[in-house]
């Protein structure tokens, strides 16, 4: 059973297009994240939602807009795609922030490989 | 700014040997976690060590944490070809996990 799933797995698109990536988790977690992994494997947090509420918004262009319809889903919409947006985007989930339990562990989806031409 | 820095960037060993990877960080942490990423896959959590712990074991994995030196090490004993992957340390402050750039481990049969 997939714990954190993302669609699509691959996304090839032209510059200037708008695209969305979807993420769903069935772990009952309260917190979900979007990360971007560049070609050098550096993994950088973009957004975090806790119970559908945005709590972390790193320095990300406002062409990127996350949306959380419920706490099991966190989608990422990207407007006016640029070449530099090419990367692997990972969704993750964890138990609520600030918990002292080992639930600080994050569970990652398989990633969406975005290539902007 | 980036928190964790793994060392070495790449490590190549033979099956059966031990692999040691190090991680240094800059600010106070709540806990430190190690993750593995196989090529083309998402990250998988390996082990978490709290800031008040010094050593932790899980199967063939041994993690140490020295908060005075702001460093951690991950030891994989008796490595296998299946251990070939990138290994990331991630430090947890109050609200986020911050990942390093990873160590790429290649275990040759």
Provide structural commentary.
- The complex is a heterodimer of chains A (117) and B (109).
- By secondary structure, chain A is an all-beta fold.
- Chain A has no helices and eleven strands.
- In chain A, strands 2, 4, 5, 6, 9, 10 and 11 form a seven-stranded mixed beta sheet that branches.
- The N and C termini of chain A lie far apart (34 Å).
- By secondary structure, chain B is mostly beta strands.
- In chain B, strands 2, 4, 5, 9, 10 and 11 form a six-stranded mixed beta sheet that branches.
- In chain B, strand 9 and strand 10 (97-99) form a beta hairpin.
- The interface between A and B is medium-sized, with 25 and 26 residues.
Q: What would the keywords be for this entry?
A:
heterodimer, A: 117 residues, four-stranded antiparallel sheet, B: 109 residues, mainly beta, six-stranded mixed sheet, 11 strands
What topology emerges from the helices and strands here?
The complex is a heterodimer of chains A (117) and B (109).
Chain A (H helix, E strand, L loop, with lengths): L3 E4 L2 E4 L5 E7 L5 E7 L5 E8 L2 E5 L6 E7 L2 E6 L8 E8 L12 E2 L3 E5 L1
Parallel strand pairs in A: 2-11
Antiparallel strand pairs in A: 1-3, 3-8, 4-5, 4-9, 5-6, 7-8, 9-10, 9-11
Chain B lengths: L4 E3 L2 E5 L4 E6 L6 E7 L5 E8 L4 E4 L2 E6 L4 E6 L8 E8 L4 E3 L3 E6 L1
Parallel strand pairs in B: 2-11
Antiparallel strand pairs in B: 1-3, 3-8, 4-5, 4-9, 6-7, 7-8, 9-10, 9-11
């Amino acid at each position: 059973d997939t714990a954190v799933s993302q669609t699509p797995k691959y996304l090839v698109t032209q510059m200037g297009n708008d695209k969305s990536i979807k993420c769903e988790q069935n772990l009952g977690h309260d917190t979900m994240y979007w990360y971007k992994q560049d070609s050098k494997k550096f993994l950088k947090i973009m957004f975090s939602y806790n119970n559908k509420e945005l709590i972390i918004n790193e320095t990300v262009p406002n062409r990127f807009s996350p949306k959380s319809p419920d706490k099991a889903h966190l989608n990422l919409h990207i407007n006016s795609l640029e070449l530099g947006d090419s990367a692997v985007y990972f969704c993750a989930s964890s138990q609520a922030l600030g918990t002292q339990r080992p639930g600080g562990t994050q569970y990652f989806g398989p990633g969406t490989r975005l290539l902007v031409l | 700014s980036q928190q964790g820095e793994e060392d070495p960037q790449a490590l190549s060993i033979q099956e059966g040997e031990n692999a040691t990877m190090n991680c240094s960080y800059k600010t106070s942490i709540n806990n430190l976690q190690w993750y593995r990423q196989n090529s083309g896959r998402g990250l998988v959590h390996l082990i978490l060590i709290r800031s008040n712990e010094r050593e932790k074991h899980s199967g063939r994995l041994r993690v140490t944490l020295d908060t005075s030196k702001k460093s951690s090490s991950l030891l994989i004993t008796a490595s296998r070809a299946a251990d070939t992957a990138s290994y990331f340390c991630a430090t947890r402050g109050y609200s986020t996990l911050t990942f390093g750039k990873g160590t790429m481990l290649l275990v040759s049969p």
